[in-house]
Design goal:
The structure is a homodimer. By secondary structure, chain A is of the alpha+beta class. Chain A has a single domain, classed as Roll (Pnp Oxidase, Chain A). Chain A is 28% helix and 39% strand. Chain A contains five helices and ten strands. In chain A, strands 1, 2, 3, 4, 5, 6, 8, 9 and 10 form a nine-stranded antiparallel beta sheet that branches. Chains A and B meet through strand 1, strand 2, strand 5, strand 6 and helix 4 of A and strand 1, strand 2, strand 5, strand 6 and helix 4 of B. Strand 7 of chain A pairs antiparallel with strand 10 of chain B.
Chain lengths: 199, 199
């Protein structure tokens, strides 16, 4: 699930809400999966991965990550990203372009404290995306640490939220006829302009 | 469905085949959906969209598009892309990095001839991703043209295949414990080197 209680009410956000409710009704699996694509400027390489979208608050789309991970470094060197959601239950994709930044530390603290301890221990232990010799050894160590039953774990500085505010949306509806319906919204001078794209 | 009859048999490809069969067994919806991310060098912008993966032949991953579309222009200016598949039925994502190029025209012709006429007519009529004033007008015109029953339609030059050959794979398995299993393969001197990444 994505927390959209405090989401913006501009037109593209209402469109998002409509599809989100439809996908929920169709019991969309892992509805919060979103692909985030970034640019590694140093090596001139595009990189992508799925993350879990946790909140949309006003116009900020928020997920959490290790701040030392490759994607965090990529956001730092090139702060523009693209994001895509594809809900196969309703055959709809939602494409966005945005600038990305860290959330403030109070927000990251709050979210960290709301999570269960086992997840937080993992956030602390993992040097996300660094190579390791064995998956099984990592799992064993993690389970050993878990058994120590940590309490009052505080958020480490290297873990927190990222927030992006889209300046472009495309809502793509797949149709059986292949004449797919594609509506876009573009933010210009703080107003959303919309139109259709050829299929 | 993706046609993988003539797929490579190196280790990452066998891994792909294993997950593909698992996802098929779980009746994964729209199993061929793959996100392709590209870099628009002129505007320094990362862009992403889902397409339908049609074939994996040896180490070439193939989909089809309009050659005048924004993505085609992006591939021309920056031929490195990232690709991600996420199969929610088995909670697995497959991340790839690759160089992309057009398939040869014989291959595009063959595939075009194998498709049904209604799809081909659309490929001819659509100036993909260009703005248009009305979706309904486009649909009406398309349906009018369809009723003329075109025969022996030949592939227009502005439509054809793209093929990418990954030099990097990551197979990401989501686990309930959150200790996700991440195995990567990297092509070095024509050999696949593998290892695990921290969750």
């Amino acid at each position: 699930m994505i927390n959209i209680d405090k989401m913006n009410i501009a037109e593209p956000y209402n469109m998002f809400r409509k599809y989100y409710e439809e996908a929920k009704k169709k019991e969309q699996k892992i509805i919060e999966a979103i692909s985030i694509s970034s640019y590694d400027k140093k090596n001139s390489i595009v990189d992508s991965r799925f993350v879990n979208l946790k909140y949309v608050i006003n116009d900020e789309w928020i997920f959490f990550s290790n701040y030392n991970s490759p994607k965090s470094k990529q956001f730092k060197s090139h702060d523009q990203i693209s994001a895509v959601i594809y809900w196969n239950s309703i055959n709809v994709q939602i494409r966005m372009k945005a600038k990305i930044q860290k959330t403030n530390s109070e927000f990251s603290n709050e979210h960290f404290q709301s999570r269960d301890m086992t997840k937080n221990l993992l956030a602390i232990l993992s040097r996300q995306s660094e190579p390791m010799s064995s998956y099984d050894d990592f799992l064993k160590n993690y389970e050993k640490d878990l058994s120590l039953k940590f309490e009052n774990v505080t958020r480490p500085e290297y873990w927190g939220g990222f927030s992006f505010s889209p300046y472009y949306f495309e809502f793509w509806e797949g149709h059986n006829s292949r004449v797919n319906k594609r509506k876009f919204y573009e933010l210009k001078n703080q107003e959303w302009k919309s139109g259709f794209l050829q299929p």
